Amino acid sequence: MECPPTFGTDPQLIQAIIAGGTEAIFRAKEGAEDDGQEGREDLEKIGFCEKDVLVGLAASGRTPYVLGAMAYAREKGAPIIAVTCCPDSAIDQMADIGIAPMPGPEVITGSTRLKSGTAEKMVLNMLSTTVMIQMGKVYGNLMVDVKATNEKLLERTVRIVKTCTHASDEEARRVLKECEYSAKAAIVMILTGAGSQEAKALLEEKNGRIQEILKAAQKEGASV
């Protein structure tokens, strides 16, 4: 899952389950998708509750594993989104929100791992990206909650801070080091003059939303 390194989320925030378990990602387990009870049990195992949102994917719109999971989510009172390439299918009708991309016939008839699978992955990209924007994980179009866990991401973090603040490379690196390589904290520090601890406290107070911190600073007469 790319959300933790890209957006700094807890690994438990967005979880994926698949018929047949993790092994099915690497080796096909064709019959697993026909077990609706397994869909229910897999959600129960991860502690799915009414505060969660279920996104069920089935190109055909009638996969028993997905339908079983959706039935469990309905019993829990959780919102349900269906992603399918068959509008008005069983999962589409069971969901609160149905998203049905129409990729057209597959090059190899019935091989929905091709266009249908790609179309559904693009829908997931849109959903996760929109959610992260709404959560304040993005500033402008920059991933300001990125975790600098390797050299590539460290350099990206430096570029993000420089882009947002027009700081020099030297200043960006110095401030990032002071705030333990939090791009958000570094941006707030440079643009408001706050210290590391103050910047982190402001981010905590404003739920990580840089825009709100800068608006408040401007109201107080700061030049941002």
Can you describe what's shown?
This protein has eleven helices and three strands, in the order H-H-H-E-H-E-H-E-H-H-H-H-H-H. It has two domains: 3-134, 3-Layer(aba) Sandwich (Rossmann fold); 151-219, Helicase, Ruva Protein, domain 3 (Orthogonal Bundle). Strands 1-2-3 form a three-stranded parallel beta sheet. The longest helix has 20 residues, at 115-134. The chain has 224 residues and is mainly α. The protein has helices at 3-7, 23-26, 36-45, 64-76, 90-94, 115-134, 151-165, 169-178, 183-192, 196-205, 210-219, and strands at 54-57, 80-83, 97-99. Strand 2, helix 5 (90-94) and strand 3 (97-99) form a beta-alpha-beta unit.
Q: Look up the CATH topology of the largest domain.
A: Rossmann fold
- Provide the β-strand percentage band: under 5%
CATH superfamily of the largest domain: Glucose-6-phosphate isomerase like protein, domain 1
Overall mean pLDDT score?
Answer: 94
Termini distance?
35 Å
Structure described in brief:
With 224 residues, this protein is mostly helical. The protein is 50% helix and 5% strand. The chain has two domains: 3-134, Rossmann fold; 151-219, Helicase, Ruva Protein, domain 3 (Orthogonal Bundle).
Helix-strand layout with pairing:
Elements: H1 3-7, H2 23-26, H3 36-45, E1 54-57, H4 64-76, E2 80-83, H5 90-94, E3 97-99, H6 115-134, H7 151-165, H8 169-178, H9 183-192, H10 196-205, H11 210-219
Helix pairs in contact: 3-4, 7-8, 7-9, 8-9, 9-10, 9-11
Summary tags:
mainly alpha, 224 residues, 2 domains, Helicase, Ruva Protein, domain 3, three-stranded parallel β-sheet, Rossmann fold, 50% helix
